[in-house]
Design goal:
It is a single chain. The protein is an all-alpha fold. It is built from three helices and no strands. 3% of the residues are buried.
Length: 86
């Protein structure tokens, strides 16, 4: 039986990923992070580390959303193959 919590997360994540506002915000954040990288003075390791952490955190956020969708699709595929066996 398919896990409803997994499906709910997958549907919500997929709606979010397909939302134009979300896509715009992601693009703006990526542009802002890139601009921050360009403004870090040479030799300012502390600021560079902070910007890298911000960039990495945003990357992990986007990966988690994608993972919710992938897991939901996998669960649905498993459920469909189990239904075919019966």
């Amino acid at each position: 039986m398919i896990n409803q919590d997994v499906l709910d997360k997958a549907y919500a994540a997929e709606r979010l990923m397909n939302n134009a506002d979300y896509q715009n915000v992601c693009r703006w954040i990526e542009e802002d992070v890139f601009a921050l990288f360009n403004r870090v003075p040479l030799g300012d390791d502390a600021t560079l580390k902070e910007v890298q952490q911000l960039s990495h955190g945003f990357k992990l956020f986007k990966e988690r959303i994608t993972k919710y969708v992938e897991k939901g699709r996998y669960e649905a595929q498993i459920e469909a193959s189990n239904d075919e066996e019966y």
